[in-house]
């Protein structure tokens, strides 16, 4: 008896496999369904969170962060 672990998505009527099975046509199988996190419940990545904030700033913000945060001019730092 061989076993394979695969993932699938339920489309409301049937399971859609996310990868092909290594089985011969007509092979009988036993299926156990374990629910994984739904896509809407999957935690956001840092980049997704940052993009969702829609922050606005000057194009040179990263280069002159002290000036924008503390009001220091570039000439004062020399």
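Q: What amino acid sequence fits the structure above?
A:
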């Amino acid at each position: 008896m061989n076993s394979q672990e695969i993932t699938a998505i339920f489309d409301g009527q049937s399971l859609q496999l996310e990868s092909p099975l290594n089985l011969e046509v007509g092979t009988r199988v036993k299926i156990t369904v374990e629910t994984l996190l739904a896509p809407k419940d999957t935690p956001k990545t840092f980049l997704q969170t940052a993009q969702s904030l829609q922050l606005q700033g000057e194009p040179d913000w990263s280069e002159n962060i002290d000036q924008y945060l503390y009001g220091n001019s570039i000439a004062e730092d020399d």
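Q: And what stands out in the fold?
A: The CA atoms of residues 23 and 29 lie 9 Å apart.
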